[in-house]
Specification:
By secondary structure, this protein is of the alpha+beta class. The protein contains ten helices and eight strands. The strands form two sheets. A five-stranded antiparallel β-sheet has the order 4-3-2-1-5. A three-stranded antiparallel β-sheet has the order 6-8-7.
């Protein structure tokens, strides 16, 4: 009878261990295979809710299956392994914490993917703020589970907030200025901006204290957020990243302006059509606008996709326009300066006859 009881116990133990191992394997398959596929599918289809949920659920299926398997096998395994009761109690204790972490992840993922859909990018200020708030929520949940009273702690924090505000006045000013920058949506990551002080470049990040701008010289310009909100900023990407490009040329007075206009229009059209930075459906304009001292000035009006595309467009336009004007026989003016040189004069010496060496004077 005793041997039959021991055999039954051994069979139940093997069954419990096999069930626990099977559930653990199912959890790993859900985590590694199914959840990863669903996450990639949501990314490819730009399904906003799917991206939020499947990103937030990372690690959750495996945890909940372990919890379920532990509760199913607890009556059997706890008799043979007393430490199993400690494991089960720990898992029960962590269930509210796991739910809190899931909610915090959903909130953080929602903010991140919302900014991505709005083409704002990943902003360190928002991400770090959400992580900090999530950490506070998780910490408060953990303290509540441990039986630590939160009310007195909140009272102490509220009482010391005034002193912290005065001590951290400048950092807090930059923090709220950064939030204003993000909330206003006037400046996004990747925008090309120029400050009133002359610095210009791409905005790469907005942190709690400053904004980073990557210049075209591959240097980082760090601007305090409070200064960015209070100074003049030109955003070349808002509301439309396309830019009008004006480029001046000069020709002599003895040229056929009608032929020059036709040739210049053809060259400019080739430039905006063949180069990636040009707007191909835009028809360039040629405008004669001034009579200079020794030339006639005309302006070629192009349209580029972004502000920095103008440099390549101007470069290519200069080469092609110069070659085309020379091929058309157009006279290109050179600078002309008129210099008046008077006759040499003799200067009479105070102590003798006039000096025989003439002194030339130039005006």
């Amino acid at each position: 009878m005793i041997e039959e009881f021991d055999a039954n116990q051994s069979t139940d133990l093997v069954t419990a261990l096999a069930l626990l191992a099977s559930m653990l394997l199912i959890g790993l398959l859900l985590e590694i295979a199914l959840l990863r596929v669903l996450r990639k599918r949501a990314q490819d289809t730009h399904w906003f809710l799917g991206k939020v949920l499947f990103t937030s659920l990372s690690g959750q299926p495996l945890y909940w299956i372990i919890v379920g398997g532990t509760f199913f096998t607890a009556p059997i395994l706890s008799n043979r392994f007393p430490i199993f009761d400690v494991i089960r109690t720990t898992l029960i204790f962590t269930i509210p914490l796991a739910l809190t972490i899931l909610v915090v992840r959903i909130g953080l993922s929602w903010v991140v993917f919302y900014f991505e859909n709005q083409q704002i990018g990943s902003v360190s200020l928002i991400n770090n703020t959400m992580r900090f708030l999530g950490l506070l929520v998780i910490s408060a949940t953990l303290l509540a589970l441990l039986g630590v009273p939160i009310g007195p702690l909140l009272t102490v924090v509220a009482g010391s907030s005034l002193g912290l505000t005065l001590a951290l006045r400048e950092p807090l000013a930059n923090l709220f200025a950064g939030m204003v920058i993000i909330a206003s949506s006037k400046v996004h990551l990747g925008d090309y901006v120029r400050l009133a002080s002359g610095e210009e470049g791409y905005i790469t990040d907005i942190r709690w204290s400053d904004t980073s701008i990557m210049s075209t010289m591959n240097h980082v310009v760090v601007v305090p957020n409070s200064q960015l909100t209070s100074s003049l900023v030109i955003n070349f990407n808002r509301p439309d990243p396309e830019v009008i490009i004006l480029f001046d040329f000069f020709v002599g007075y003895d040229n056929d302006l009608q032929a020059i206009e036709a040739a210049a229009t053809e060259v400019a059209t080739e430039v905006v059509t063949e180069l990636d930075g040009g707007v191909s459906d835009y028809t360039p304009l040629i405008r004669f606008n001034a009579f200079q001292d020794s030339s006639i000035r005309f302006t070629v009006v192009l349209r580029g996709k972004t502000y920095v595309d103008q440099y390549l467009l101007k470069h290519e336009l200069s080469k092609r326009m110069h070659a085309r004007l020379l091929a058309e026989g157009v006279t290109l003016p050179y600078p002309v300066r008129v210099v008046h040189v008077p006759r040499p004069i003799n200067v009479e010496n105070d102590y003798g006859p006039p000096d025989s060496t003439p002194i030339e004077r130039y005006d």
